Amino acid sequence: MALIIAGERSGVGKTTVTLTLLASLCRRSHQVQSFKVGPDYIDPMFHQHVTGRACRNLDPILSSETYVQQCFTRHSQGIDYALIEGVMGLFDGVTPPLLRGGGGVNDYASTAHIARLLDLPVVLVIDCSRLSGSVAAIAHGYNSFDPRIKIAGLILNRVGSDRHLQLLKDSLAPLKLPILGVLRRQDNITIPDRHLGLVPTVELPELNALIERFADLGDNCFDWKRLLPLLRIDAGTRGCGDVINNLSASSSPPSPVRVAVARDRAFNFYYQDNLDLLQQLGAELIFWSPLEDPQLPEGVQGMYFGGGFPEVFAQSLAENTVAQAAVKTAILAGMPTIAECGGLMYLCEQVIDFAGKSWSMVGVLPTTAVMSGRLTLGYRRAVTQQDSLLVNAGTTVYGHEFHRSYLMSNFEQPLFQTYRFDNEEFTGCEGWGSNSSHLNLHASYIHMHWGASLEIPQRFLRRCLGE
Q1: Does residue 323 share a domain with residue 427?
Q2: Are 311 and 345 in contact (CB under 8 A)?
Q3: Which residues are identified as catalytic?
């Protein structure tokens, strides 16, 4: 078995509760695997910092329902406990286009959807800071809304006092839902955030001390006697076949393909499954820093720039002109290159930060990325308009956008036409592909997970080999 931490809405403290559970479990020297529902990059960084194991995203839109089951099964083997952090409120999801008008299904890719797919119990986190008796109505509603979802218990967060707690308990008593944890209002346990969510782990020098405080809190605020059996993985668990392990030996090249992966404070948004797939298919990943390294790693045959916060570190990126020149030279010479969101911004001529200051970037793409207050967020169905490094023209892919920048101009032959996943509303044209000056390039704001699309990393590595 394993346990899903869900919220009655966004902002109730799911991440705090999850990190508190993980920190306390790991303090006891348990092997713990965590998962995150949805497309998030930053919460998984915190999970991994605590557990020492890469957190895995469970997202049926970016991958598939089958892949979600495969991923969970594979990474739950050989460990003691498994914990899944949900997304938004328990039933907050989207309506797939094929199901629109078919009974009001609107929780696809929600935490509830994942609970049904994996047949796992849910613990509901309730923000009690402005509640007393009404807590029972909330708990009752969530417990009865979908009979397929098993609510194993409640965690009461942001409880103000002993009197407050007693009022909550008295109200909840008739429901007979176990209270599995009580977290008091904490002024000394906060994770700083900024324009795209939490500040990533690599930028928090005091993070280890914070995790210790989480562990201290977790040791005392949970009903471990009830929680541990829910979290424990059954040693006899069997599940679906594993798409990664089922790759044939013929899928790998005779010698490793060296791929330079930008990973530092500016670029750190990567799905671990994407990196694993590249390695499984024969890539040797060479991590380097466009912020600090003066040159590309030697002998690389491809480049991968993930998302992140180039706007926050724009001055340092601009000052490393030697690295910029090396990247530009490699791309213009035809080196296959993937650039997602922040990576796309890095390849532009300039980035204009929130203060309106302009910083020079690589300059392969003849446009400027401008930071703004407007958030672009959501799942996308993207239809390829031209061949790119990763996909042919006419291909439909599914991805996610999450950024506060825009490009001052797009290429006259954009890579994608994009549509909202839930209602098919046209959202625009964007991206730069291989027909952009005939480069081996895929540069886009769209983040993609390759778990159910092996042809994407396979095609990338073939191009790295010159095929």
Answers
A1: yes
A2: yes
A3: 341
